[in-house]
From TrEMBL, chain A:
InterPro entries: 2Fe-2S-bd_N, 2Fe-2S_ferredoxin-like_sf. Transmembrane segments: none annotated. SUPFAM superfamilies: 2Fe-2S ferredoxin-like. It holds the Pfam family Fer2_4. GO terms for molecular function: iron-sulfur cluster binding; oxidoreductase activity. The lineage of its organism: Bacteria, Bacillati, Bacillota, Bacilli, Bacillales. Keywords: Oxidoreductase. It comes from the Bacteria. It comes from Cerasibacillus quisquiliarum. This is (2Fe-2S)-binding protein.
UniProtKB/TrEMBL annotation, chain B:
Signal peptide: none annotated. It comes from Cerasibacillus quisquiliarum. Pfam families: Pyr_redox_2. This is Sarcosine oxidase subunit alpha. Gene3D superfamilies: FAD/NAD(P)-binding domain.
From TrEMBL, chain C:
This is Pyridine nucleotide-disulfide oxidoreductase. It comes from the Bacteria. It comes from Cerasibacillus quisquiliarum. InterPro entries: BFD-like_2Fe2S-bd_dom, BFD-like_2Fe2S-bd_dom_sf. Pfam families: Fer2_BFD. Residues 6-56 form the BFD-like [2Fe-2S]-binding domain.
């Protein structure tokens, strides 16, 4: 499968020679990448940018540093959690899943206002004092 | 037990490994990336003499040499702790088990400094280094149209690489000023940095700037009269008087909000506009990645000239802990050529301890140290104007600590 | 502008850090403990220089020669299996 997100010709680095295709799944959908691709590069080449959502807020995240420093791209690979997509080569039949929101004891529709951090807790306390 | 374990297979680590193997030491090199080369892999720029500095080729040469010497280089291994058991007995803790060695060389390179802009957690926003690796190493386009936030030596060089690969960049501009972006958001300070790479850019305006950078007055003037349309470098506008205040989008980058700014970096009201982009590269520069040096207990110095906190070391790449060596960007932000030369120095320093009766080694070590200086002075890309002063300060710190 | 996330792992904003620093006039280390900035998955590798920059502006705490936030092993998250000395079976 060719795809225009691949930089096949490069004026200095030359043309990419034929590489072996590899099939893997991401969140149940099948994708194709090339041998030597990382999970991150194969998914980006397929137009997939979101690799996980923040465990608490659910905000989407994708690659940030692409060399293993920031851990933003962590995904689940063959049931192993916390795997960095940018440092892991895709293998045939690999099962990759995105990071999801984790259940939180504080998460409840009635207690949306509970503080997440100590800073928020202090702020809320002060606001309450102000109201009294 | 290995004679030496080298953490990091970038230019410093690889050249050190080659030198150690030349003296027949038992060497293991580990790196957490999928292939060796470190940040060198992504590098690609044209030297003033018209030749290309091609990081992939440079890495290949180092690897060919290392392989011809049967060097054990393993990728995909992350070190999470370095431990000293006793003199000349260290343990490297990794995700693939523990390894023991008589000597350690920490060559972990640099990490990128963030220049946070509202919206920078959206998918499609990445560090400029991330885009470099995606483009030159993985050969995947990071998007259809993008913008670079942060104008400095590194980002200008990488922006050029993206262009070469046919990636469409709208422009480069500054991050809006906040408590974190400060220097990166101040047009005059950015101008100082730009003028240091002027020789790489066919731009009369920048050349003009560079010739007079010593004069504060002229620098101010150049910033004051910086063209509204930006200065074009390789056909792409670089704006010092525009700043990105926000990156917008629901689940991914859709646009950026841009304001004109004063010569002091203040937003000018009523100049707000949106530019549609689908990716954003953030460039805040590099800092030495020294966490493994910290956990083994090396002392540090904070030296702005070298890019931040660097482990104390001397010209021979020795540290105050006998048997622990450092080389490459962990010792200060400089070019890959300097890192490679430092690796040779470290390799010779390690070899000197383990090979008896080779007076020749002392001479080679001295020559290698000289070579580092020569390469530093001839550097095409200079990350800080006072690198040499920084190097002198760290040398003095080493002497102070070792002699006290 | 203060709503910018500084620590991406723990989603701590510039506002959180500034207000905490102002209120307690505290060290970078105390900021970390009070706000969780730098305590997330990446161990502060991404936000540490940014937190230091905010501290310098608010409390005047300039980076000294010691690293402001002590670096503790492990510097990468490791599984208990790895710590126990087992090899990954990948």
């Amino acid at each position: 499968m060719t795809n225009n997100r691949r930089i096949v010709d490069h004026p200095v680095l030359g043309k990419l020679s034929d590489r072996k295709e590899i099939t893997f799944t991401y969140d149940g959908q099948t994708y194709t990448g090339y041998e030597g691709d990382t999970i991150a590069s194969a998914l980006l080449a397929n137009g997939v940018r979101t690799l996980r959502v923040h465990e608490e807020s659910g905000k989407p995240r994708g690659i940030y540093c692409n060399i293993g420093h920031c851990f933003e791209c962590r995904v689940t690979v063959n049931n192993e959690t916390g795997v960095r997509a940018c440092l892991t080569e895709i293998k045939d039949q690999m099962v990759v899943e995105s990071g999801r929101v984790l259940p939180s004891p504080l998460a409840s529709t009635e207690h949306d206002t509970l503080p997440r951090t100590y800073a928020e807790f202090v702020k809320q306390q002060e606001e309450e004092k102000g109201e009294v | 037990m290995y004679d030496v374990i080298i953490v990091g297979a970038g230019p410093a680590g690889l050249s050190a490994a080659i030198t150690c193997r030349e003296w027949d030491l038992h060497v293991l090199v580990i790196d957490e990336f999928v292939k060796p080369g470190g940040r060198l892999l992504g590098q690609l720029h044209e030297e003033p003499n018209g030749e290309w500095w091609n990081g992939i080729e440079e890495t290949k040469q180092l690897m060919d040499k290392a392989e011809s010497l049967n060097t054990d280089i393993r990728c995909g291994i992350s070190a999470h702790h370095l431990e000293k058991v006793k003199d000349h007995h260290f343990i490297v803790h990794t995700n693939k088990g523990n390894f023991e060695a008589k000597n350690l060389l920490i060559a972990t390179g640099a990490a990128e400094t963030a220049a946070p802009v509202p919206g920078w957690t959206l998918p499609g926003v990445m560090s400029i280094g991330a885009a470099q690796v995606m483009t030159n190493v993985h050969r995947v386009r990071v998007g259809e149209k993008g913008i670079v936030i942060g104008v400095n030596v590194l980002s200008a060089a990488i922006a050029r690489e993206l262009q070469l690969a046919g990636v469409n960049l709208h422009s480069m501009m500054l991050p809006a000023m906040n408590s974190v972006t400060k220097e990166h958001a101040h047009p005059k300070k950015v101008m100082d940095g730009l003028s240091r790479i002027a020789h790489l850019a066919p731009s009369a305006f920048l050349r003009f700037g560079s010739r007079f950078t010593k004069s504060d007055f002229v620098r101010k003037l150049a910033t004051q009269f910086y063209p509204k349309s930006g200065v074009k470098m390789w056909g792409m506008p670089i704006h010092l008087r525009k700043a990105v205040t926000e990156i917008n989008g629901k689940d991914r980058v859709e646009s950026v909000t841009v304001f004109d700014i004063t010569a002091d970096g203040k937003l000018i009201k009523g100049t707000e506009r949106r530019i549609e982009v689908d990716f954003v590269c953030i460039a805040g520069g590099l800092y030495p990645l020294a966490e493994l040096a910290a956990v083994i207990g090396l002392p540090f110095q904070y030296l702005e000239e070298l890019g931040g906190h660097v482990p104390v070391h001397n010209k021979k790449m020795e540290t105050p802990i006998d048997g622990v060596y450092v080389a490459g960007n962990i010792t200060g932000i400089e070019s890959a050529k300097v890192a490679r030369a430092q690796g040779t120095v470290a390799g010779l320093s390690i070899a000197k301890k383990h090979v008896d009766g080779k007076a020749d080694l002392d001479y080679r070590l001295l020559k290698a140290i000289e070579q580092v200086k020569t390469i530093r002075n001839e550097a095409t890309i200079q990350f800080h104007p006072h690198i040499s002063e920084g190097r002198e300060k760290i040398e003095q710190a080493f002497r102070r600590i070792v002699h006290s | 502008m203060d709503h910018i996330t500084i620590c991406r792992c723990e989603e701590v904003t510039l506002e959180d850090i500034k207000n905490t620093a102002k209120k307690y006039q505290c060290s970078a280390r105390e900021i970390k403990l009070r706000t969780r900035a730098g305590m997330g998955y990446c161990g502060g590798r991404t936000c540490r220089p940014a937190v230091d920059a905010v501290m310098e502006q608010v409390t005047g705490e300039k980076p000294g020669h010691d690293i402001p936030l002590k670096v503790q092993p492990p510097v990468r998250p490791v599984s208990l299996a790895t710590l126990r000395g087992m090899q990954d079976d990948k």
